[in-house]
C-alpha cells in the first residue's frame, strides 16, 4: 500500500511540474511576441500553484527587464538564488541585468560564477566573451570565444563572434580561426 501512495505522490509531483513547464513555455512565447503583461499573469499563477518552480521566477524577472523595471527583475532573480543558491542560469540572468545597468564588472563576475557551476556550457563562454569584448578586453574575449568554439564547433554564432573579435583586435586575415577553437 505504501508503494501505491508513493507512486501516486510521484505522479502528482510530475504532473504539477509538467503544467508549470507548459505554462512557463507559453509565457516565454508571449514575451517573445511582445506581450509581457499577458506572460506575467500566467507566470504569477505558476508561482502561486508551484512556488518552487524556479523558471517562472526567472521569466518574471525577464518580463520586468523587458519593461525596463530592472530593480523588480533583480528581486525575482535574487529569489531564485535564495531558493537554490547554486542555480546555474540565474547567474546568466544576473549577468545580463548588470550589463543592462552598465556594470560590466558585476556582469562578468556573475557569468563566471555560472561557468564555475556548469563549465560544460559553451554559450556561457560566448556570453563571457561578449562582455569582455564590450569592455575592450579583446584578448580575454578571444580566449572565451575559442573555448566556446572548441566546446560547440557546430554553432556558427561562436565562430562569427570569434572572427569579429580577431578582426577588432587587428587580425584582418582571420587566419587564426579553425573549427576546433584553437
Features:
182 residues, mainly alpha, single chain, 9 helices
How can the largest sheet be summarized?
A: none
Question: What percentage of residues falls in helices of 4 or more residues?
Answer: over 70%
Query: Number of helix segments?
Result: 9
Morphology call? elongated
Main structural class: mainly alpha
What number is the mean pLDDT? Answer: 85
Element order: H for helix, E for strand: HHHHHHHHH
Oligomer: single chain
Residue fraction in strands:
under 5%
Low-confidence stretches: 5-15
Intertermini distance? 59 Å
Total strand segments: 0
Task: Tell me about this structure.
The chain is mostly helical and 182 residues long. Helix 4 packs antiparallel against helix 5, helix 5 runs antiparallel to helix 6 and helix 8 runs antiparallel to helix 9. The relative contact order is 0.07.
Topology (SSEs and partners):
Elements lengths: L1 H31 L3 H14 L4 H13 L3 H14 L4 H13 L3 H14 L4 H13 L3 H14 L4 H13 L14
Task: Provide a concise account of the structure shown.
The chain has about 180 residues and is mostly helical.
Amino acid at each position: 500500500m505504501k508503494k501505491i501512495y508513493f507512486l501516486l505522490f510521484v505522479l502528482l509531483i510530475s504532473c504539477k511540474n509538467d503544467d508549470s513547464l507548459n505554462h512557463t513555455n507559453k509565457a516565454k512565447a508571449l514575451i517573445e511576441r511582445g506581450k509581457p503583461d499577458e506572460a506575467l499573469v500566467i507566470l504569477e499563477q505558476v508561482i502561486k500553484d508551484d512556488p518552487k518552480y524556479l523558471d517562472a521566477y526567472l521569466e518574471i524577472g525577464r518580463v520586468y527587464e523587458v519593461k525596463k523595471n530592472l530593480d523588480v527583475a533583480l528581486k525575482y532573480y535574487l529569489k531564485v538564488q535564495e531558493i537554490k543558491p547554486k542555480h546555474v542560469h540565474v547567474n546568466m540572468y544576473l549577468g545580463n541585468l548588470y550589463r543592462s545597468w552598465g556594470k560590466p564588472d558585476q556582469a562578468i563576475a556573475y557569468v563566471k560564477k555560472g561557468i564555475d557551476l556548469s563549465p560544460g556550457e559553451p554559450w556561457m563562454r560566448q556570453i563571457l566573451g561578449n562582455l569582455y569584448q564590450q569592455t575592450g578586453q579583446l584578448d580575454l574575449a578571444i580566449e572565451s570565444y575559442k573555448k566556446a568554439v572548441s566546446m560547440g564547433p557546430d554553432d556558427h554564432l561562436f565562430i562569427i563572434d570569434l572572427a569579429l573579435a580577431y578582426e577588432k583586435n587587428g587580425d584582418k586575415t582571420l587566419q587564426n580561426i579553425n573549427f576546433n577553437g584553437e
